[in-house]
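Hey,

The postdoc asked me to send both predictions to you directly instead of through the lab channel. I've kept everything plain text so nothing gets mangled by the mail client. Protein one:
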Amino acid sequence: MKKMAKAMAVLMVAAPMVMAPAQAMAANKYSALGDSIAFGVGASFLYGYTLMYANDFLYYKYGGIDFKQWSVPGHKSGDMLNQIRTYPTMRTDIKGSTDLTVSIGGNNLLGCASSNYSVIDTACAERGVQNFAADWPQILSEIRSSIGAAGKLTVMTLYNPYRGDEALYATVDPYVKRINAVISNTTTKTAYNYRVADVYSSFLGKFADGSWKVSKYTLFSKATRDPHPSTDGHREIARLHQLLY
């Protein structure tokens, strides 16, 4: 795996954590928070956007980075809120981080799909959006107010994994956009001092050659559909984070 010497996956009982042992004493710390996307699912060897951002960008920017992986596959917004509130070590890492990223909200909708993502339970999706809208300001308040973290915070938007020519694209899109609207709310961004990586727009539409971006950036075009980003998708998400720095 690329730069394996810099970052090794260490599985913890309390929470998954990936560290960069060689940079354990680095002055700058980066904590990745969120779900399976932030954990690297979909990328080769789990070398996802957070590790790319840590090792391929922050490491060189700072001359070293202490990477803390607190993302948990399957977490919904409520799970992440509870995690932040109840794990003292995580709170310490968040407070001491110069850089923080968040990927959350996808699982609020993911469980609403069935039959290989061919059926959408819209009542479930509605609950997922409402739960996210209630959890998100509390998550931010924990990070900025309760913990007192002052590091640079970047949050990615959700993307729609369906191609634009698929019937369910239009069914799913309003729910994705509503969660993204909560994330991108100008008043909230100003109040809690964070930036938004617009992954939704980057994954939307087609390339110049006419191919759908989600067919390259996600694993959703496989026979057994997987909405996670591909390695290329993770690379694009990392690039969007770097552009905001």
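Protein two:
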Amino acid sequence: MLDVPSEYCTTVERAVIRRVSATAIQGESHQTGSDGWQKYTLYVVARFSKPFYATGGWEGTNITPDVNDIAGKGDVGAFASYHTAQDETIEVRTGISLRSLLLFLYGTAVRTGEAPRLRLADVDLDYGVVTIRETKFYESRLVPLGSDVVQLLRKYLATPGRWNRHDQPLFQSRQHNPRPI
């Protein structure tokens, strides 16, 4: 569940998944890239349209039924068990954390309409500055980045599956489009 397929090889160093209600599971996965320096945490929640009667999980090939929490490393996941009628549909909604974007906005005071327009070419992590183009008054301005925001952006840019080309959005969706706020 928390080993996200990506272009780059990653290892789940530690994952925790828990049942938080009769219709929701949430978890976090601490992952490291194959080169050892790409470290990040992925937060996820899954909400179901029907209450489940039990949850379970797995780590590797070990399956554990009827537990509310599962933790481990590597291949770790959770499942929900239901009593269903024939042809019954159960819908699930999932969400992945936008923590990096929110902390960037908080740490820079960049307007919410400006952040989705940022491209990688606008960010200079070596000098700790971001160029905001086409601002509210049709001008450009430089915004200094604190060391904590620089560190956050370095981790974010190391996220597997990103397209890190200069013309790509800084905050991008899975389809590499600008992430809406």
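Summary for protein two, as requested: The chain has a mean pLDDT of 83.

Thanks,
C.
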